[in-house]
Write a structure and sequence with these properties.
single chain; about 475 residues; alpha/beta; Rossmann fold; 5-stranded parallel sheet; about 40% helix; flat
Length: about 475
């Protein structure tokens, strides 16, 4: 049975989706630390994972799995690496990042699963750190027993808000079981889900979603256990082996007969026909016999004419004449000299210049639409012809002004295509090349604005894909450029 991808609405159920909505609301509107509390296997990890895919305005979320080795410094390092990877930043402390988030009314949320494994005092230290930085929100997930132990030692009730996950009731369990069947997480089908089966599973799992999933995954249709299935397989192999043996060895090819079955058969006597002898051979043989008898009795021997044999000619070795082969001499043609053309002198292309070099005219040619030109003050114009990125132009800008970081791209060709795309829509952009750990990336920016409010207002007028850009002060970008030199 094929298994499809599990989504938020597939396995959470109505009650869990309501909890997810509550958690999203509290993250957006409440500064207190959240405690997601529930027994083991109740669905805390599933809810945190679903929260990552939930769209919360101006919020970045990171999920961490707690271990005994997790420390305050390692959590800070994970957060900085997460932000640097997302926005291609370098050399910034977590406090500076959180201050930048706070200025932009953005939030950084850390979801810590299995928080009961954290070292003693670490939860309290993280809560105090979050209280000092309003942009940082923390969500801990742990069991009631783990929280009671942490509370006795660290005293956590003061700055926390609780979200409790309860066991499923019978109706919720039935919905959850049917959802498991729908997404292919069990070998059962719809017709197998009877009232008797639902009651048995609910009583065994006691409303715990993790236990329900385990029972549904382990159960087999028809009640056949794995041991019984193995036994039936062995019996089937034994029957097949016996059948093959019966056909191969039931009748041997050469059967052995007993003494009673052996019948002696007398050999048949065959009379040969009389031999006919040629008379000339017979008379010659008699004459020869008489000559032998006469020689044995002392009479002079009669010379016996030798048997004439055909003369055999002497063997003369065959003389093999060598084969004359005609040797073809290769003809070598002289190499013709290669004609060398004169070097082509390429004249340098003329540098393009704007017809009107006044600051106002150059500003109108930038990516900013005509309606928002009035929002920009004291922004030096982009150079018309550029050989690389726009580092020099960025360093010349007023450090008190702001720009919009649109995106981070991995290929220079993609940067050029993106710039051409938005240039055709009336927007001119600039980019910076950044190298980190042998990895090159390209940051695409847009415009210059006198303050944060005007930058955010201009961002809402951009095309839809660019309306979640990051307003950044030129001072931060210039500082990173100088540090990377």
């Amino acid at each position: 049975m094929a298994t499809k991808k599990i989504g938020t609405k597939d396995l959470l159920g109505v009650e869990r989706i309501q909890k997810l909505d509550l958690m999203a609301h509290l993250i957006a509107n409440l500064r207190n630390t959240l405690i997601l509390q529930g027994s083991k296997g109740i669905g805390k990890t599933t809810l945190l994972t679903a929260a990552l895919s939930r769209e919360i305005s101006d919020t970045d979320m990171l999920l961490l799995n707690a271990t005994h080795n997790l420390s305050f410094e390692s959590i800070q390092y994970e957060l900085v690496e997460f932000i640097n990877e997302k926005y291609q930043l370098d050399g910034r402390a977590l406090s500076d990042i959180l201050a930048s988030y706070d200025k932009q009314d953005r939030k950084l949320v850390v979801l810590i699963d299995d928080a009961g494994l954290l070292l003693t005092g670490l939860m309290n230290a993280l809560i105090n750190y979050a209280n000092k930085h309003p942009a940082l929100r923390i969500v801990f997930a742990l069991t009631p027993e783990e929280f009671e132990l942490k509370h006795e030692i660290e005293g956590l009730n003061r700055h926390c808000h609780f979200i409790e996950l309860l066991e499923l009731n019978y109706e919720q369990s039935e919905v959850f079981i049917r959802q498991l069947v729908d997404v292919g997480q069990t070998q059962y089908v719809d017709k197998d889900i009877t009232t008797h089966l639902l009651k048995d599973i609910y009583q065994a799992a006691k409303g715990n979603p993790s236990e329900i999933s385990r029972i549904m995954m382990a159960a087999k249709k028809g009640g056949i256990s794995s041991t019984m299935l193995l036994f039936l397989l062995i019996m089937l192999i034994a029957v097949i082996s016996a059948t093959v043996s019966f056909f191969l060895w039931d009748e041997p090819l050469n059967p052995v007969k007993t003494a009673e079955e052996i019948v002696l058969v007398e050999p048949a006597i065959v009379t040969a026909p009389p031999l006919k002898i040629n008379e000339s051979i017979k008379s010659g043989f008699a004459d020869r016999l008489k000559q032998i008898q006469t020689s044995e009795s002392g009479s002079p021997a009669t010379a016996i004419s030798p048997v004439l044999k055909k003369a055999v000619p002497p063997v003369i070795p065959e003389i093999i004449l060598p084969i004359k082969r005609e040797v073809i001499k290769p003809t070598v043609k002289p190499i013709e000299p290669i004609a060398v053309s004169k070097p082509v002198i390429v004249e340098p292309l003329p540098v393009l210049k704007a017809k009107d070099e006044s600051p106002q005219a150059v500003l109108e040619s930038l990516l900013i639409p005509e309606k928002s030109v009035s929002d920009i003050k004291s922004v030096k114009p982009l150079p018309v012809a550029l050989s690389g990125d726009d580092t020099q132009w960025v360093l010349q800008q007023d450090s008190q002004q702001y720009t919009l970081q649109l995106m981070a791209l991995s290929e220079k060709g993609m940067v050029k295509r993106t710039q051409e795309k938005y240039k055709a829509l009336g927007y001119r952009t600039f980019y910076l090349q950044k190298k980190k750990a042998n990895k090159v990336s390209y940051l695409l920016f847009y415009g210059g604005f006198s303050d944060m409010d005007k930058a955010r207002a201009a961002m809402q007028k951009l095309p839809e894909p660019l309306r979640k850009s990051w307003p950044r002060p030129f001072a931060d970008i210039q500082k990173e450029l100088k540090q990377s030199r």
